[in-house]
């Protein structure tokens, strides 16, 4: 975009996870459920942004909606660890100040993204983990839920399949299960992962990024992926761009994917799409990693790039209606 051509004043890009998502695998009903969910979240974000809401508020509100939606691997609907628990990771970053907050392995907070934001705003730290993060969440008065709140039958079934294939013992179900199948058969199993993420440019010219996930099915030993690692799965700077990732986190950590994309924009002057493709289509693919990213820049450029068969994604900007995509062959 030339300097004379002003970009949109605000923009939002959303993802709901990447993985094996092929047209023939999704029923018409499932496809509609995901498209509707992605549209609803993006429209909500667009409404907030057009009303002048700050980037961080929009990240928290939109990711909060997805954490409540059992279709996605974040909050309710998260995948299980090998011990039959939901250990949730989330991160948020403010591109204006470079402040960031992240949590790993939290088990009781309904909205991990809100907890990540509190780590950023109400603690001197960037990242809290496990029982300490759960305790901080209670102290902050964030909504706490029973472990069974996060339960969905299809994620439990996926765990059993994983444990049997890996000859691991099957644990007891979590306590306090509210509903066996809140997604009512609409959810699609996109592999052993998934994640949600949002990046926005607000009308004050600030970018921000947020990511929330249950991680990967059957994870063990306190495994943490890229989502809450600042620079890997989540990064934002007004000097370059904001990025949220999804995919097999180990590769994203090794490549510092989110920060690498921002560095290519900042130091090599690449367009956002070219930088995203360089890291996902070349670097990640060469390493045999799988997944994708969404990104937005302070001048209103938006991008997504993934090397899986699908990624739930949507975007909107001032003067540009919501576009939703799932499969590779969609623009
Ligand atoms: N990146 C997440 C993780 O590795 C999972 C995903 O996005 O699918 O924890």
TrEMBL record:
<protein>
    <submittedName>
        <fullName>Isoaspartyl peptidase/L-asparaginase</fullName>
    </submittedName>
</protein>
<dbReference type="InterPro" id="IPR029055">
    <property type="entry name" value="Ntn_hydrolases_N"/>
</dbReference>
<dbReference type="InterPro" id="IPR000246">
    <property type="entry name" value="Peptidase_T2"/>
</dbReference>
<dbReference type="Pfam" id="PF01112">
    <property type="entry name" value="Asparaginase_2"/>
</dbReference>
């Amino acid at each position: 975009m030339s300097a004379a051509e002003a970009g949109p004043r605000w923009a939002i890009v959303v993802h709901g996870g990447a993985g094996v998502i092929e047209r023939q695998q999704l029923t018409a009903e499932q496809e509609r459920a995901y498209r509707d969910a992605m549209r609803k979240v993006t429209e909500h974000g667009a409404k907030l942004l057009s009303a002048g809401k700050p980037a961080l508020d929009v990240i928290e509100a939109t990711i909060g909606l997805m954490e409540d939606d059992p279709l996605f691997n974040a909050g309710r609907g998260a995948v299980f660890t090998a011990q039959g628990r939901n250990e949730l990771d989330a991160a948020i970053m403010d591109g204006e100040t470079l402040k960031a907050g992240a949590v790993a392995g939290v088990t009781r907070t309904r909205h991990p993204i809100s907890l990540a934001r509190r780590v950023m705003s109400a603690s001197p730290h960037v990242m809290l983990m496990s029982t300490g993060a759960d305790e901080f969440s209670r102290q902050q008065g964030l909504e706490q839920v029973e472990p069974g709140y996060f339960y969905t039958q299809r994620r439990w079934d996926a765990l059993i399949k994983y444990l049997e294939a890996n000859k691991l013992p099957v644990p007891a179900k979590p306590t306090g299960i509210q509903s066996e199948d809140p997604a009512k058969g609409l959810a699609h199993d996109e592999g052993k992962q998934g994640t949600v993420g949002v990046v926005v440019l607000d009308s004050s010219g600030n970018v921000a990024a947020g990511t929330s996930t249950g991680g990967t099915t059957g994870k063990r030993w306190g495994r943490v992926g890229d989502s809450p690692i600042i620079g890997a799965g989540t990064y934002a700077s007004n000097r370059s761009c904001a990025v949220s990732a999804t995919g097999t986190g180990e590769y994203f950590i090794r490549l510092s994917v989110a920060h690498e994309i921002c560095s290519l924009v900042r130091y090599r002057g690449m367009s956002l799409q070219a930088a995203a493709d360089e890291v996902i289509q070349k670097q990640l693919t060469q390493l045999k990693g799988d997944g994708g990213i969404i990104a937005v820049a302070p001048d209103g450029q938006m991008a997504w790039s993934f090397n899986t068969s699908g990624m739930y994604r949507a975007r909107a900007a001032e003067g540009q209606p919501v576009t939703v995509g799932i499969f590779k062959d969609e623009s």
